[in-house]
Known about the structure:
The protein is of the alpha/beta class. Helix content is 37%, strand content 14%. The protein has 14 helices and 11 strands. Strands 1-3-2-4-6-5-10-11-9-7-8 form an 11-stranded mixed sheet, with helices on both faces. Helix 3 (79-86) links the parallel strand 2 (48-52) and strand 3. Helix 4 (129-136) runs parallel beside helix 5 (153-159). The longest helix is centred in the C-terminal third of the chain and has 23 residues, at 344-366. The chain is globular and about 70 Å long. The relative contact order is 0.15. Glutamine binds at residues 101-104, 127, 147-151, 179, 286, 398. The site of glutamine has 13 residues, from loops. Keywords: ATP-binding, Ligase, Nucleotide-binding, Protein biosynthesis.
Amino acid sequence: xxxxxxxxxxxxxxxxxxxxxxxxxxxxxxxxxxxxxxxxxxxxxxxxxxxxxxxxxxxxxxxxxxxxxxxxxxxxxxxxxxxxxxxxxxxxxxxxxxxxxxxxxxxxxxxxxxxxxxxxxxxxxxxxxxxxxxxxxxxxxxxxxxxxxxxxxxxxxxxxxxxxxxxxxxxxxxxxxxxxxxxxxxxxxxxxxxxxxxxxxxxxxxxxxxxxxxxxxxxxxxxxxxxxxxxxxxxxxxxxxxxxxxxxxxxxxxxxxxxxxxxxxxxxxxxxxxxxxxxxxxxxxxxxxxxxxxxxxxxxxxxxxxxxxxxxxxxxxxxxxxxxxxxxxxxxxxxxxxxxxxxxxxxxxxxxxxxxxxxxxxxxxxxxxxxxxxxxxxxxxxxxxxxxxxxxxxxxxxxxxxxxxxxxxxxxxxxxxxxxxxxxxxxxxxxxxxxxxxxxxxxxxx
Length: 446
Ligand code: GLN
């Protein structure tokens, strides 16, 4: 814990990953842990971790990088935070993100812009950009992120670290501030695949506080590390290797496939034919859910309250007008529109139907293949400020990660070479609740 704080002190002025530090509490916890007998210490005992700021932490400010939650001190821990404590992990602090997890560059934070540690002129990705940058910069070896449409995998790719979005339902969402409840999952970001598997073991499992958490066995994911991949079948979607993907990204994936082939895995081209509709489907559904979830921020119950209001309606309006940033407002408007009586059938309902088709695309490929492999992102990290005023280009960044959330299946990003000094990511996608095979393949490549 002390080392983590020293490193943060040394580099976070440049990287800007942390929003709030938990130093006093963390060092006290570390001291208390010293009395725990060796036989009661799990594999991650005593290790420092950073937590994305949309995961609530008792007594430690949780803002979702939004002005509207300024000063919000939760009165309970998220289930994952409780599990970290039970494993003897030490929460070092809260980490910067795009406001309410909406974005792909961490430029949408109301507080600060996190930078890519490999090149400070570039973004770390988003929305868990702070979580990926903190690991890449060596501030902490473990962080938690959340992934609704790519927010763990895309920043992991941009920062050259390992990020896993587990199967929907694998990890409890209790205490994760909801963005799009049918898509959100919490997951681990780490330096290597084995650490990642061990952290997922800690945070997984059914939770009575989250009715969408699944009552399925949690395997020892770390036992899959290093298992031979001979005979394993890999599908490579042609839609993920096409024109929109830059040549250096495509080449890095082909080189990774060679490595896997060298160990006896076989790969073939497959098709996920509805991929082209994923982006539109995702932005309709996620914005619809967000417009409903974010209705609770009214200036009464949490955080920020506009001072000048003279009546209740004005209080709601002024608090929300002042408290939410532009991107969040854009999503609330889009979502409210698509849920309104006149457009529900044409947009929301239709998007739900297309979501089912996208899910079926994956099911079909998984009838024959063990995993799907492709790039995590179409390009390496772009420059700070480069596309921040162009939401559609920003959205297109997640074109290869979003289908995974819509289908509810698990996916990881592992480092896969560099382009001009910036890391690239390899995405490995698995069957529902089969994170083990993903870790097996990821460790074979790593
Ligand atoms: N970039 C996507 C969005 O802005 C994904 C965000 C996420 O996964 N939280 O919605």
